[in-house]
Amino acid sequence: MQDLINRRFPVLDKGFVELQDMMGDDLAIVNAARVSFLGESKGEDRDKKLLFYLLRHEHTSPFEMVEFKFRLRCPLIVWWQLVRHRTANLNLQSGRYTPFEEDDFYVPQIWRRQSESNKQGSEGQIDPNDGDTLTQALLQHYDQGYKLYKQALQAGVAKEQARLFLPGFSVYYTGVWKMDAHNLMRFIRLRVADDAQWEIRQYANVIFEVFKQALPWTAEAFEQYQLKRD
Ligand SMILES: Cc1cc2nc3c(=O)[nH]c(=O)nc-3n(C[C@H](O)[C@H](O)[C@H](O)COP(=O)(O)OP(=O)(O)OC[C@H]3O[C@@H](n4cnc5c(N)ncnc54)[C@H](O)[C@@H]3O)c2cc1C
After folding, report:
1. Does the model's pTM come out above 0.90?
2. Can 191 be counted among the known catalytic residues?
3. What gap in Å lies between CA 171 and CA 168, rounded to an integer?
4. Residue 83 alpha carbon to ligand 1 centre in Å
5. Which CATH class is domain 2-92+171-227?
6. Left, alpha or beta for 12 (phi > 0: left; psi -120 to 50: alpha)?
């Protein structure tokens, strides 16, 4: 567990996931459930069996006894979706306080095609030559936006307003994001799914890998009873 804390997992071109802190483990879940009849651990086999029973029967409150606190660096396009998960506690970098840097923008490696079956989704990629042209246009757009941002700052405009010039959805923000294991499983289930946006899926996949290492029994039961069922 300790080797997971503060390890930085790169995501997208400039983002990352870092587990800053964690409270509890698989046994904490089992012991929380046993408080119902004032008992504690009864050995590995029976503890694991109880944990699987809890998840299978959606006795979820013991899973809320474990907390994960992540430090995330994501483009706003991803934060926009992360904030919809209301059971997370969140504190974000302030663009009113900290000026943005020139390379604080997300540059995708490929340009995905609009999905034909899912109006919200994407599939495959467009012709790579057209993609290169779009990437050059995007970089110019970032450059232009950032120059205007700096120009506004130099003219004395407050950072809170100068940021109107920045290409909004692409800018990277760092934040601290905390969630209990019960709600984190829900987040993972929704955001590793094929219909979630590719960018948030990259974060959810890494968070899931951390989750598996931190709570191996819970992750196994979660895959068996919730992910496979989906
Ligand atoms: C593929 C996909 C597409 C999406 N598209 C859109 C979109 O177009 N527009 C959009 O706005 N959102 C969209 N969302 C976000 C989605 O509607 C949810 O807000 C998001 O997935 C968080 O889920 P949640 O509410 O279950 O999680 P949380 O907010 O973490 O809540 C977990 C659970 O707690 C309970 N809960 C939390 N808050 C309340 C509350 N106030 N009242 C009652 N119960 C509560 C609910 O049981 C909820 O399921 C999309 C999500 C996905 C995965």
Report:
1. yes
2. yes
3. 6
4. 9
5. alpha beta
6. left
Task: Provide the token pair at 55.
Answer: 């998840």
SS3 content of the chain, % helix, strand, coil (to 5): 50, 20, 30
Answer yes or no: are the C-beta atoms of 143 and 165 closer than 8 Å: no
- Measured CA to CA, the distance from residue 89 to residue 71 in angstroms comes to 12
Any idea where the domains of the chain sit in the sequence?
A: 2-92+171-227, 113-170
DSSP strands (E only) in 63-127: 67-75, 89-92, 113-114, 122-123
User: Along the 230 residues of the chain, how does pLDDT read in single tens digits?
Assistant: 778 999 999 999 999 999 999 999 999 999 999 876 556 777 888 999 999 999 999 999 999 999 999 999 999 999 999 999 999 999 998 888 888 888 899 999 999 999 999 888 999 999 999 999 999 999 999 999 999 999 999 999 999 999 999 998 999 999 999 999 999 999 999 999 999 999 999 999 999 999 999 999 999 999 999 998 76
Q: From ligand 1's centre to the CA of 163, what distance in Å?
A: 29
Best residue for ligand 1 mutational test, from 84, 177, 182 (most atoms within 8 Å of Cβ): 84
The ligand 1 atom at the shortest distance from the C-alpha of residue 88 is 30
